[in-house]
Amino acid sequence: MRALKNPLISLAAALLFGVAVQFGFNEYIQLLVLFVSVNCLMAMSLNLVNGYTGQFSLGHAGFMAIGAYFTAYASLHWSFLPPSLSALTFFIYAIGSGLLAALAGFLVGLPSLRLKGDYLAIVTLGFGEIIRVALLNMDFLGGPRGLANIPGFDSFYMSYAFAMLWILICFFTIWRVMKSSYGRGFLSVREDEIAAEATGINTTGMKVRAFVLSSFFAGVAGALFAHYTNFINPSSFTFLQSVNAVIMVVLGGMGSMSGSIAAAIIVTVLPEALRPLQDLTGIDLRMVIYSLALILVMILRPKGIFGELEITDIWRKYVRRSARS
After folding, report:
1. Do 31 and 268 form a contact (C-beta atoms < 8 A)?
2. So what's the pLDDT on residue 88?
3. Could you give the 3-state DSSP secondary structure of residue 232?
4. How far is CA 216 from CA 50, 68, 106, 193, 308, in A?
5. Residue 325: pLDDT band by 50, 70, 90 thresholds?
6. Has residue 172 been placed in a domain?
7. Structural domain tally of the chain?
8. pLDDT in tens, 196-221
9. CA R_g for the chain
10. pLDDT of 144-180, one tens digit each?
11. CB distance 190 to 52 below 8 Å
């Protein structure tokens, strides 16, 4: 119960923030907040592989696509609960999306995670493109047209609360795993794979477990994306989607869940916050400034915004110390 205290306090604060957004901001800001939540889930899930386990995956968009298409198809063709229980239905579909993505992660990871570095990145990149091209040629999933009229939530607050629940589940699950013997195994693979093997750790098994868990939450992120946009097609899950997830992990800090959340907020909000510049200058400078901002952060903070620290570590290290002094 002590371990649950901070997550529950964070959830309560997030839900209060959702109330403020519901009544204080327009639909554009509300949709932006929902996209931030999807990116938070993507970044945290990828951080488990790229940050804690020290691998380099570029196929996260493929797992997101699997989750999105599963929940979209299920929502359009399968209905086993009344409309009044739509939130429960979406939760079940999200679990199904995660499990299907986790299965794909296992099938891809078992042979490919014997590789490392650039070779693994190329394999996972190829997997993401295989998924996208396969979806283009599946007529029962809409082919290049995609799937439209996907059922969504009745209100912004329901959508937001659903996302916050999954973010809490993802954060707490990965945090507890990293505090266990499995987590120490993941970190040993990142620090020195040869030394880990010499001590009897099955490094391939560790990498596959991390990959499967990461794929599960990527599939859930895809399910949230499908319900929020109400329309998906293969172009929604291109290579750039995977690159954005990698940017969030590196920008926030490899091995920092709090950093992944902060970076997801920055990467999602900054391009939209720069839109008024086009009205003032007549030139779309958004991506130029956005790119320069990322470069500056990487120069000034080469280990990311948070490094390997969590927000609680920063609180104890800086805030409490300054208060005592």
Report:
1. no
2. 85
3. strand
4. 15, 12, 10, 24, 23
5. low
6. yes
7. 1
8. 888 888 888 888 888 899 999 999 99
9. 20
10. 888 888 888 888 888 898 999 999 899 888 888 888 8
11. yes
Domain that holds residue 116: 2-237
Q: Which two tokens stand for residue 65?
A: 């696509």
Q: Which residue matches tokens 């570095």?
A: 117
For 136, how many CA atoms within 13 A lie in the half-sphere containing its CB? 12
For residue 316, what is the DSSP state?
Answer: I
Q: Residue ranges of the alpha helices (H) in the chain?
A: 2-24, 27-47, 60-77, 86-112, 118-136, 156-178, 181-191, 193-198, 203-229, 239-252, 257-273, 276-281, 286-300, 311-314, 320-324
Full-model pTM:
0.90
Q: Is residue 276 in a domain?
A: no
Q: Map tokens 């059922």 to a residue.
A: 151
DSSP letters, 257-298, are HHHHHHHHHHHHHHHHHTTHHHHHHSS--HHHHHHHHHHHHH
Q: How far is CA 128 from CA 6, 25, 119, 124, in A?
A: 36, 36, 15, 6
Amino acid at 278: Q
Cα–Cα distance for residue pair 64/127, rounded to 1 Å: 12
* CB distance 307 to 253 below 8 Å: yes
Instruction: Please tell me the distance from the alpha carbon of residue 319 to that of residue 150, in angstroms, as a whole number.
Output: 46
pLDDT of residue 293: 83
CA distance 146 to 137: 10
Q: Which residue in 124, 141, 169, 157 sits closest to 226, CA to CA? A: 141
Rounded Cα gap, residues 88 and 72, in angstroms: 15
Q: Has residue 186 been placed in a domain?
A: yes
Scan for tokens 């007549």, then name that residue: 282
Return d(Cα 39, Cα 201) in angstroms, integer: 32
Q: How far is CA 159 from CA 156, 164, 272, in A?
A: 5, 9, 21
Whether residue 55 is contained in a domain is answered as yes
At 310, which helix (H) or strand (E)? Answer: none
Instruction: Please name the residue that has the structure tokens 């993507």.
Output: 42
